Amino acid sequence: MDDEFESLRASAQEALRVRDLSAVGELLAAHDPPEIVRLLEQEPHAADRAVMYRLLDRESAMEVFELLDTGMRAELIEGLRDEDVALIFEQIDPDDRAQLVDELPAGVAKRLMQGLSPAEREVTLSLLGYPRRSIGRYMSPEFVRLRPRLTVGDALTHIRHRGADAETIYLLPVTDDARRVEGVVGLRELVMARADETVAGLMVEARTVRVTDDAESAARRIVEAQLLAAPVVDGEDRIVGIVTIDDASRILEEADDEDAARQGAAEPLRRPYLTTPVLGIVRSRVVWLLVLAVSALLTVQVLGVFEATLEEVVTLALFIPLLTGTAGNTGAQAATTVTRALALGEVRARDVLAVAWREVRVGFVLGALLGLLGFALASLVFDVAFGAVIGLTLVAVCTLAATVGGAMPMLARAVRADPAVFSTPFISTFCDATSLIIYFVIATRILGL
């Protein structure tokens, strides 16, 4: 399969190089949308991506556009002709349109919004009115709702009449006349029931999400409950939209990508690596590198304070990488574990003391195990006093690093910050400085420096 794709990619690039557009069009027409998306994602030149996209027929173009990442959609929009853009923008789903607006320059977004039909503009503006990180930005306002008193026969007729434009018909919300959700019913249950049965006799309790709920938290609840879809309600329990499990899975995938990037001291790229400009990659990394470089000056300051101690016992310098590395790794492990527990809803911000106490014990046990090993090895190579310095330092730094690593994501959530930001990079830097202070204080006391 990879060999076939590489052959397709090489053929497309050669045809583009010589500007044989008919050959490019024939190549694209012979492949499915997922393969075309992969081809676009690995084409490094934005202009050539736009050329390939314009060579697709209308149906394939819409399928490909829906499969692209939001960042690539935004870039593609800027590279197409105005008439192509207007057509795409009108035809995509309102929730995809709202997310695309967030990625586009303000001027481009305004022009596209003005070009929409009145109905589509009103629907899109309603989604854009919700907080940026809320599930309201990701829901679809296009759904079929049923009334409890409908018979199954009438309900199926209603679905056939209204279902063509709906996000999904496999799980249908049941509401009263005021649009308040009373339950949900599956299409399978309707198809299998007698025509004279009522929807009220088939519906089950609905598991709804609030329109202002955090998108990641709401999506995780939907995926964990394995719901085909969940009604989205306002403060008065009136339905305003629906979120499918596909949309929820996409939200979680984007959130996981963001967390992974920030744990590595970078911002997510928002588009495939090969299609991201070099300056875009630089921007995603440089801010965090500057922050970490400045914070690392703490370590330099600590070494400066204890410079006389190092000159007196040069051997102390040999163990600095071991101690700072162990502290950073211990803190990073704790932070990663707690950040994941937060994302899964296993702990909440108010559990910070319970988490800190648990990590104190975990860190102490880990430090004791490593400390015993360090004490034995340092005592054999140097002497017992020096071995005691290494052993006690390992116990202390592991305990502190685990506690701080576990507590920092909890504190981040409490102040509505991203827990991933407070994990590996900051904790590693913090542990470097504090572990050195602990190390030199213990060495001063035991070795009488």
UniProtKB/TrEMBL annotation:
Subunit field text: Homodimer.
Main localisation: membrane
CBS domain boundaries: 139-201, 202-258
Protein family per UniProt: Belongs to the SLC41A transporter family.
Transmembrane feature ranges: 286-306, 318-342, 362-382, 388-408, 420-442
Protein name listed in UniProt: Magnesium transporter MgtE
PANTHER family linked to this entry: MAGNESIUM TRANSPORTER MGTE (PTHR43773:SF1)
Key word Acetylation present: no
The UniProt record lists the keyword Transport: yes
Subcellular location: Cell membrane; Membrane
Function: Acts as a magnesium transporter.
UniProt cross-references to PROSITE patterns, sorted A to Z: CBS
Membrane topology: Multi-pass membrane protein
Pfam family, one: MgtE
Superkingdom, natural source: Bacteria
CDD domains: CBS_pair_Mg_transporter
Annotated keywords: CBS domain, Cell membrane, Magnesium, Membrane, Metal-binding, Transmembrane, Transmembrane helix, Transport
Organism annotation: Microbacterium flavum
